[in-house]
Recover the amino acids of this structure.
């Protein structure tokens, strides 16, 4: 049966009635707009979409959408999203969060989500700072950033490079975009959703409160990644990258991980294997 035009959901139909509490000018507003544009463009029913997040400013996003959502604990969005994607392959599952949530306490989960390659999309809003807890340096903060009282002389550690990490760990779809370009970001999110496997999208999302210098991102970003399915070619591009190149970097053709379809064994039969037989005197 043909779908009537009036039945197609518009981007605003994917938003809830809850007003975001982000700071005015926060890049996460653009990400929310891009996500709803992507869902609308793919004509996905709201009851077939789930947003999973951890803790942080960006992790509030599920509350602002009118799809299924789960606001989990710090760094644990990916295990939740992976379990849901495997248990309910009929759903479109998107995990989301920030650079602290995803690459610090959630870093171990990120590595294994990349290599497991379950069918879900992970969107990280990277502002290179812990915005919700008053501006501490995050894993992606540059070593010479002097904006935090906790690291007044800089972090003295190299910034983590998420795209290199995702590529080396086995992610099947890797891209970078900018929250200030919601139409382009919506296109990349839609491509990530349609990719069969784990899709990782790093979004440069400025923090106007603790990293106001990031408002100059529009002058620094550029389209430039040449999409490839060759890991060596992708790594070569990243070696010369200054973290402001945008686009889809890598797309593999590896099959997505799926839960076992084997019939569940009889519980009584399993229990019988662990029964301790009394020993004769």
């Amino acid at each position: 049966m043909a779908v009537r035009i009036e039945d197609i959901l518009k981007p605003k139909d994917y938003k809830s009635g809850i007003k975001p509490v982000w700071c005015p000018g926060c890049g996460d507003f653009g990400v929310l707009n891009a996500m709803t544009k992507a869902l609308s463009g793919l004509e996905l029913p709201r009851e077939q979409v789930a947003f999973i997040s951890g803790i942080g400013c960006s992790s509030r996003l599920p509350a602002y959408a009118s799809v299924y959502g789960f606001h989990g604990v710090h760094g644990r969005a990916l295990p939740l999203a992976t379990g849901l994607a495997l248990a309910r392959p009929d759903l479109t599952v998107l995990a989301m969060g920030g650079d602290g949530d995803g690459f610090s306490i959630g870093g171990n989960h990120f590595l294994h989500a990349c290599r497991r390659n379950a069918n879900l999309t992970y969107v990280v809003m990277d502002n290179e700072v812990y915005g919700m807890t008053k501006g501490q340096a995050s894993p992606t903060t540059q070593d010479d950033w002097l904006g935090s009282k906790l690291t007044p002389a800089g972090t003295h550690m190299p910034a983590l490079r998420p795209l290199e990490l995702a590529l080396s760990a086995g992610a099947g779809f890797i891209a970078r975009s900018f929250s200030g370009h919601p139409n382009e970001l919506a296109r990349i999110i839609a491509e990530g959703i349609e990719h069969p496997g784990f899709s990782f999208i790093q979004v440069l999302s400025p923090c106007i409160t603790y990293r106001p210098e990031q408002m100059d991102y529009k002058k620094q970003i550029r389209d430039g990644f040449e999409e490839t399915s060759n890991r060596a070619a992708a790594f070569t591009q990243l070696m010369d990258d200054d973290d402001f190149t945008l686009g889809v970097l890598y797309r593999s053709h590896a099959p997505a991980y799926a839960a076992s379809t084997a019939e569940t064994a009889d519980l009584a039969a399993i229990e019988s294997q662990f029964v301790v037989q009394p020993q004769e005197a």
About this structure: The chain has one domain: 29-142+160-257.
